[in-house]
Amino acid sequence: MSKQPELIQPDRGQNAVSIHLVNKDGFADWAKSLTRGQRAALEAQKFDGSGYQVGIVPDGDDWFAVGGVANPDSLSSWCMAKLAEVLPEGTYRRANGEPGSALFGWQTAQYRFTRYKDDDKAAGARVLLTRDAKAIEPAIAEAQAAMKVATLVNTPAEDMGPAALEAEVEALAKAHKAKLSVTKGEALEREYPMVHAVGRAAAREHAPRLLHLTWGDEKNPVLAIVGKGVCFDSGGLDIKGATGMALMKKDMGGAAHAIALAGLIMGAGLKVRLHLLVPAVENAIAGNAFRPGDVLASRKGLTVEIGNTDAEGRLILGDALTRASEEKPDLIIDFATLTGAARVALGPDLPALMARRDATAQALIEAGKAHDDEPWRLPLPEAYNEYLKSDIADTNNAATNGYAGASVAGLFLDKFVGDGIDWAHFDTFAWRPAAKPGRPKGGAALGLRAAWHMLQTRYG
User: Fold this and answer.
1) Are residues 123 and 151 located together in one domain of the fold?
2) Which residues pair with 210 in a beta bridge?
């Protein structure tokens, strides 16, 4: 991620270019206030107030900008994002109101992943002013968390393996004076046998581990955040094809969400006892790889027959969810790039949400709708547990049919969450296949804002 000054700054009356926001229905009336030359300039640019249009209007020796939005009175996160992408470097303010929700997209629109290649086409920073001083710090923190997810997911597996994920969590712990414990080697095999089994075929430098960060007053309600950290997924012995493997650097997207969310929680000082758990592995192929038909032990004590080595994310999450449950948490939220079935059902933009309690699911959905990060709830039908039956073990890790793949994966996870615990599961894509204003192509935070705003309401 390129280094930039803070893109949202307080409005103290400093020089800034004005931005007028109009929609198509109101454009004609608004344009009556312009000079003939200004209207001609907009006409030449074919500006009519349609969404995401940007117009430049001369104003004597100066100029101002016009942006087309759906509703100037109710801005979404993305209403000003196109402006942030295409306007020249400089400082701007909204002329006819405050940017509100658009503070988020103004920042994410300027995100660039430049670790391996300079972005020569990127303009300098475009700074947006606001008179709402209280909105600045939360807006910056939230956008930086989303961009953290993008950067972690965009980084190739060789540079974002289990050790690199550990370094990220270690840096987070140091920043917030949290405690980090790391379990690997023989201790991992003993305490988290499914995490060890999935990751044992990886090279030594990508050895599996369980990362466990704790923070906050022990008297506060326990909140557990769990993230799937499969840093690369070959599919194991049930190997993926080339197309399926091409994007598997993003299979640690759940861990990226969990790490970013933990940072938001600690940064805001939420009144919780936080447990962040990230099982970090590479699902590799070698002579010691776990096999189809193997039966694995688990931390929970359940035995798991392996119907498919490419259903590995749910295995490592099972051990992590068991550990989270041992703290008797008030709530567990997990994030995982778990199933292709969720993408078939919902496409790339909607994270699938599964939850034990209706009230928790509804709170997450409402928070997501309010902040342009809507999840879509999928069921956890008890009847589909029969798809996970095994003749020789307590459960199989994969169904033999193609039915309800996302929900069946959720049902597998549910077996490892303690009885009666409030639990929500995000099956997120963590990737955007095509750019939209404020939402660059590549790694993407999907479900992060829904979870964050729900948690602020619940524990703030």
Assistant:
1) no
2) 183, 279
